[in-house]
Structures are given as C-alpha cells and as structure tokens.
Amino acid sequence: xxxxxxxxxxxxxxxxxxxxxxxxxxxxxxxxxxxxxxxxxxxxxxxxxxxxxxxxxxxxxxxxxxxxxxxxxxxxxxxxxxxxxxxxxxxxxxxxxxxxxxxxxxxxxxxxxxxxxxxxxxxxxxxxxxxxxxxxxxxxxxxxxxxxxxxxxxxxxxxxxxxxxxxxxxxxxxxxxxxxxxxxxxxxxxxxxxxxxxxxxxxxxxxxxxxxxxxxxxx
Length: 219
Prior knowledge:
Layout: H1 2-17, H2 22-33, H3 43-55, E1 60-64, H4 70-76, E2 84-89, H5 92-104, E3 111-115, H6 118-121, E4 135-138, H7 145-154, E5 161-164, H8 179-193, E6 197-206, E7 209-218
Parallel strand pairs: 1-2, 1-4, 2-3, 4-5
Antiparallel strand pairs: 5-7, 6-7
C-alpha cells in the first residue's frame, strides 16, 4: 500500500512540475528497447540533479555511472554554453546507448562518455587536463563507493558539491549482513571523518522505492 502511495505522489509532482518531455521519454524507451535495467533516477530526482547543477553554478560536472545517460542529460541541460560533463561507464553496451541518447538530446558537444571501469578511468582524467569539477555525482557499483568518494575529493575544490545516490537502499545500510550496506557505511564513515567536507543524507521515497542521497560540500 505504501509503495503505491509513493508512486502516486511521485506521479502527482511529476505532472505538476514537469512539462511534457519527448526527449526524456525517448531516452526511457531507447533504454528499454536496448535491454538496460530500469534503474535510472526518477524524473523528479533528475530535475533535482539539474537544479543542483544550477545552484552550484557548475561549469564542469563529473558523473560516475552513466547507464543510458538519463541523469547525464538532466545535468547537461543545466550547464552553461561552455560547460562540460564527463560521465564514466563500465559497460560498452550501456555507453553506446548513452551516446545515442545524448546525441538525440543535442548535448554531444557538452557531454563526454568515457568507457571502462571507473576505478581505472578516474586517474586518467588528470592526463586529460581535468584538475577539478564543480559538481560530482556518484551513481555506480556500490562496493566501490568508498573509492569513488576518495577520488571525488581528489577532483574537488572548495565549494565542490558531491552527491551520491542509493545510500539508504531500503534501510539495508544498517544491515550488517548486506555487502552493499557495508559499502555504504564505509562511505559514510569517510564522509563523517573527513574534515574537508560537510555532508548530510536526505532519505527519499517515490517511484524508486525507499532510498536516499548523500550530499556534501567541500570546504
């Protein structure tokens, strides 16, 4: 019953606050046709990310975990004319779909998809001239979240916003037997103990179930 209510409320806010968006609808359809898992952020969460990019006055954005590019496009739409978004995707099949979606959204000049395990590609960004990003969004394989957080700090400056999705995982963050829950607790330990970042967690409910975002600002 509560899950249906969450979905209904999510649908209500989407209908109220989102205009018809054929581009994003086409992204969902293309992802589905390509057999990608339906684990994108929701429309309301996507717009939240777009607004966060605007609030941070972000010009350079790093995304760890692309899937089909749904969240990439939301954030890319918020960038200024000379803004850039780099998104890292492990699977070639996902990267192909993401690039197609990004091109169809008219954002190929702003968004670059880099293939390969993020643990391997993150160090390479330095050689490509990236010294820092204004906003970093982590939404990839959960066991590596602690490593991604360390790299996020490496590519930060004072004022950089770091956002991580799926940190609550239906409450499994507290489950001592859940390996992904343990990864989230390790991630939280790093955020809590590092004096360079001021962070919190917002729990969420909606069409994506019960979960939450970690949000931090680098000092």
